[in-house]
Amino acid sequence: MAYQTGSEVSADEYNKIWSGAWSTGTTRWDKGDVSPALRELIEDKQWVLPSGQGIVPGCGRGYDAMFLARPGLHMVGADLSPLAVEAASKLRDDKGISSQLVSFAVTDFFNFKIPDEKYQVAYDYTFFCAIHPSMRADWGARYAQIMSPGGHLIALMYPLQKAEEARGRGPPFMVTEDSYHDVLDNNFELIHIDSNCQTHDTRVGEEIITVWRRK
Ligand SMILES: C[S@@+](CC[C@H](N)C(=O)[O-])C[C@H]1O[C@@H](n2cnc3c(N)ncnc32)[C@H](O)[C@@H]1O
């Protein structure tokens, strides 16, 4: 993968990779647009999103958060990097999208104050694979904490590999369908899966879109 560091990193070190990537402008994961699978789910398959408040952790330049935002659904794009938040906010302003619809905030997904009403929608893409595998259980527990009952976690699985190949170096850290089941099944029910979803050209065969309902 383009943003592979070439060496295994500890959980403590991984966030330095992200601030370093943003400060040097090496954001080669960035496809410059909404994920095709998400657009297809919402526009073609007419997936009905709950209203309320949504979050996109590790939002980068915020394309997906901006796409999901709509009257009745305020989206928050959350990223560890101030440079990411700055870029996303500028893009939103350039597009003339109101901050009433989508806001961006410097946020550590694993440690921020959860609003009383929690989140009714979350979108996770290239975030699960961005965190160290040792943090995956915390990732699942954190989504369980921040989502309201009945809330929809849309997880675009990526980069999918066969189990025996899904180890090793990153980020991105390779994933399997089981990587998600292992940490979500206790608190979420899988209510939609599409393994033939549209993908970015360079990611064909590596993505499956899923929706998980908070129990
Ligand atoms: C691979 S990039 C993906 C960005 C975006 N989702 C996209 O597809 O363009 C991962 C992003 O997660 C952010 N990130 C990493 N750890 C984070 C954390 N603990 N909380 C919030 N954001 C984090 C990084 O700064 C980076 O922008």
UniProtKB/TrEMBL annotation:
A GO MF annotation of the entry reads:
S-adenosylmethionine-dependent methyltransferase activity
Domain of life of the organism encoding this protein: Eukaryota
Q: Which Pfam families match?
A: TPMT
- This protein's UniProt keywords: Methyltransferase, Phosphoprotein, S-adenosyl-L-methionine, Transferase
InterPro entries assigned: SAM-dependent_MTases_sf, TPMT
One Gene Ontology term from the biological process aspect of the record: methylation
Note whether S-adenosyl-L-methionine occurs among the keywords: yes
Protein name, as recorded: Thiol methyltransferase 1
